[in-house]
Amino acid sequence: MAPVAPRSGDVIFANVERVNAELFTLTYGAIVRQLLTDLEEVDEVNKQLDQMGYNIGVRLIDEFLAKSNVSRCVDFKETAEVIAKVGLKMFLGITATVTNWDVEGTTCSLILEDNPLVDFVELPDTCQGLNYCNILSGVVRGALEMVSMKTEVTWLRDMLRGDDAFELQLKLLKQVPEEYPYKDDE
Amino acid sequence: MIVCVAVVGHQNNPLYIQSFTEADDVLKLHHIVHCSLDVVDERVNNPKKSSPTLNETFLGLLYPTENYKVYGYLTNTKVKLILVTTDLDVRDADVRNFFRKFHAAYVDAVSNPFHVPGKKITSRTFAERVSTIVKSFGLSSAS
Amino acid sequence: MGREVSESCVESLVTEIVSSYCNGFYADKPELAARRIEAIGFQVGHQLSERYTMDRPRFTDHLEAIKFICKDFWSEVFKKQIDNLKTNHRGTFVLQDNRFRWLSRMSVDPSIETLGSIQDPSAMAENKAAQAIGMHLYFPCGIIRGALSNLGIPCAVSADISNLPACSFVIRIKA
């Protein structure tokens, strides 16, 4: 059995240093706008945001593991739950639900109904191809790579484009087993 | 009934103006808003020293016309908010309450990273929010 | 109201802005990188001053606005007030934070190789770490300039880090 992961990040979030979300939201918004000015192409901005997120994820995973006491050896299903209930809570103060598992147990979706990145944001008509929250998918991809899970992380639904929720699809491409041999649930 | 509201930038550039009345009044209302800006400037540049409301954002009744009452509000960032109403008996608390909500809606609209300072506010969310605030004017005035 | 996020989120973003602009697209143009980082800060400061002055009377003069930056604004952003405010009464104000939060907590990437042009030259020590810190400071300098500019006070803002971890922000109001 894998060590028990915390079911919720509430206690951890209550104990980390926190700041006013407005500062975070507005800083991210200003970055996106500056990148649009400098890179011009929306696709380039999507790529850059993903890359920035990846770099952040690679760094944040240590803080996450240290503060959450989550073991590195959880399987993908448990990992998705931990991201949704502990990881997102600990950093952004929000949670997601995990759903839409495929038969193999290698693809699922995180559904976010609330997301501090997009407070006050309305996409202009010229930016409809922008994946505004791409930094978040990058963070998840970067963090998972540091615990030996190579993933593809894609936005399927986006409230800024009129969807009723944010849906982030996680697809496990390759898992390098560590101490525990990889065990398929199905 | 509120017939017109406006947001005007610090160079008297209109950022948002919306009337809630029959179309043939629109030009007249825009003119009233325009004239009220001079009154705001006058008020701010020559404050009554004895007034307890010195530097308060809420400027009160700017001037009454035959059919309308015009109220003003000036933010720290020199943005003017204007309200034109046909009500004769308006309670001060209702007007203050209106401006507080109107100001909050404005602040959220300009917090959109894609809003360009000094440019017109085109946000649909803002328009809807303002319309809701206008409709609720005077209905709940406990504060 | 009162929504919060972990402080790591903000720090991560700031670190990433600096490394993206200094190591990435503007690797050999530190002045351009600095200008972009400052511009991001400017937008944030501009918007924050709009939010943080919402429920207060208008400022009557420059000093009142600067005091607001030192107290309320700084507390919202950095959870403490400015420790010392000095002025020459001719439009220059020096705001000293004895333990500037973004320097005491942030991990500064020492590989950033650049020289600040706005920063006080005496503060730009020989070593790269100080230069990297200089790059990070364009962001808060931009925040201060954006906030004051929106309050009707055009100015230039620079940072002095000759007494780390203290950091002084020098505001020169344009006549």
Automatic annotation (TrEMBL), chain A:
Domain of life per record: Eukaryota
Entry keyword Ligase: no
Gene Ontology biological process terms from the UniProt entry: endoplasmic reticulum to Golgi vesicle-mediated transport; intra-Golgi vesicle-mediated transport
InterPro entries: Bet3, NO_sig/Golgi_transp_ligand-bd, TRAPP_component
Keyword Transport listed: yes
CDD domains per UniProt: TRAPPC3_bet3 (cd14942)
Entry's Gene Ontology cellular component terms: cis-Golgi network membrane; cytosol; endoplasmic reticulum; TRAPP complex
Main location: endoplasmic reticulum
Subunit text: Homodimer.
Role played: May play a role in vesicular transport from endoplasmic reticulum to Golgi.
Name of the protein in question: Trafficking protein particle complex subunit
Native species: Capsicum annuum (Capsicum pepper)
TrEMBL record, chain B:
SUPFAM superfamilies given in the database record: SNARE-like
Residue ranges of coiled coil: none
One of the protein's GO biological processes: endoplasmic reticulum to Golgi vesicle-mediated transport
One protein family per Pfam: Sedlin_N
Annotated GO CC locations: cytoplasm; nucleus; TRAPP complex
InterPro entries, per database record: Longin-like_dom_sf (IPR011012), Sedlin (IPR006722), TRAPPC2L (IPR044760)
Family listed: Belongs to the TRAPP small subunits family. Sedlin subfamily.
Protein name, entry field: Trafficking protein particle complex subunit 2-like protein
Species annotation: Capsicum annuum
Automatic annotation (TrEMBL), chain C:
InterPro entries: NO_sig/Golgi_transp_ligand-bd, TRAPP_component, TRAPPC6/Trs33
Pfam family, one: TRAPP
GO CC field: cis-Golgi network; trans-Golgi network; TRAPP complex
Gene3D superfamilies the UniProt entry points to: Trafficking protein particle complex subunit 3
Residue ranges of coiled coil: none
Top-level division of the source organism's lineage: Eukaryota
Single GO biological process annotation from the record: endoplasmic reticulum to Golgi vesicle-mediated transport
Family to which the UniProt record says this protein belongs: Belongs to the TRAPP small subunits family. BET3 subfamily.
PANTHER family listed in its UniProt record: GEO08327P1, TRAFFICKING PROTEIN PARTICLE COMPLEX SUBUNIT 6B
Name used for this protein in its record: Trafficking protein particle complex subunit 6B
Organism of provenance: Capsicum annuum
Classification of source organism: Eukaryota, Viridiplantae, Streptophyta, Embryophyta, Tracheophyta
